[in-house]
Amino acid sequence: MNIIHVNQVRKQYQNHLALNDVSFDIEKGSIFGLLGPNGAGKTTFIRILTMITAPDSGYILFNNEKLDSHNIADIGYLPEERGLYKKMKVGEQALYLARLKGLDRDTAMTELKKWFIKFDITSWWDKKVEELSKGMAQKIQFITTIIHHPKVLIFDEPFSGFDPVNASILKQEIINQRNNGATIVFSTHNMESVEELCDSIVLINNANIVLDGKVKDIKQRFGTSLYNFDIEMFDDYNQNIVEEMKHKVDDCLIKDGHLSGKISLDKYLGESYSNVSDKHLKAETTNMIVNDLIKIGNIVTFNEVLPTMNDIFIKTVTANKEEK
Ligand code: ADP
After folding, report:
1. Distance 111 CA to ligand 1 centre (A)
2. Which of 81, 84, 88, 260 yields a CA-CA distance of 20 to 30 A from 222?
3. 311 in a domain, yes or no?
4. Angstrom distance (rounded) from CA 10 to CA 134
5. 193 in contact with ligand 1, CB cutoff 6 A
């Protein structure tokens, strides 16, 4: 089920089209990546979703109803540019922000204390914000973003400014929030975290969506049709089949009773295998290869070499530039 449905959303600034009738869905309880190069239109979309600005045309449905000011409490937003009052004390400020989110004083105090203990930062309560490092300030803002249990959490570059240990704590907390039912929208240039966390993505480039779908499906779509394999050979393996196989695979290696290498579908078929998007042909060919391999030994590994999300991002954005 979708929690957010974006329909033909358009936003034009004076002389710049920031979103060109974009449409997509965000599934409830998923981690959704909003990706794109600088200037693509991501922040514009976030500003529309958080109702800071309105679209020129198009609309957003939130839980199947038109997004409306009463949804403000349903959405937590951690912007990339974070603003805390430097002279205020950390605890005081966290309390103030939690109250702004609609929590009464007692609940806000209880929740904040819980989080300060969890993040092991109780000693910060009486410090001034200006004494905090960027990462420390981010932790405070993270807490005040999620404290009122919003249904949708938007994080803009949440890991920037964090050391690896704290980034990992934050990552785990994002997953916890999702496991507790929240939907996460996060905007980032860090493709490793996309690979690790996101269920689905949209890639926006020059105000248009150039790629969208589940990360798993997108990676398959960009599949190389090159397979890594490793077989533990039978003691009485058929020499002839192995000899034949050697001509068909790249980086063929026989070592410690194992045969390994890389199989490219077109080379294996001995003809041009160009239609990688033809799922049936691909499945038939891989089945045929597996059938050959099991005559030699037990399959330990057989998997397609898939591009990283970083490769896919660069490839799509560059291709898009060339088309223009
Ligand atoms: P992203 O977040 O993907 O980097 P933005 O949504 O911030 O991109 O910006 C998309 C485009 O719209 C950019 O070219 C930016 O310069 C332009 N833009 C953003 N906000 C404004 C504004 N308030 N007035 C004019 N142009 C804007």
Report:
1. 36
2. 260
3. no
4. 34
5. no
Residue 21 lies in a domain: yes
User: CA 131, CA 135: separation in Å to the nearest integer?
Assistant: 12
pLDDT at 223 over 90: no
By residue range, what is the domain housing residue 104?
2-220
Please tell me whether residues 265 and 228 are part of one structural domain.
Answer: yes
Residue 176 lies in a domain: yes
pTM of the complete model: 0.84
Residues 130 and 271 in one domain: no
Residue-wise pLDDT for 101-128, tens only, equals: 889 999 999 999 999 999 888 998 998 8
pLDDT confidence of residue 149: 92
> Residue 301 is which amino acid?
T
Q: Are 209 and 58 in contact (CB under 8 A)?
A: no
Q: Which of ligand 1's atoms lies nearest the C-alpha of 37?
A: 3
DSSP-based three-state secondary structure for 294: coil
Q: Name the residue at shortest CA distance from atom 12 of ligand 1.
A: 18
Which helix H or strand E contains 24, and what residues bound it? strand 16-27
Ligand 1 atom with minimal separation from the 47 CA: 6
pLDDT bin (cut points 50, 70, 90) of residue 66 is very high
Is any atom of ligand 1 closer than 6 Å to the C-beta of 79?
no
- Evaluate: CB of 18 within 6 angstroms of ligand 1: yes
Decide if 319 is inside a domain: no
Supply the mean pLDDT for the chain: 90
> Ligand 1 mean position to 158 CA, how many Å?
20
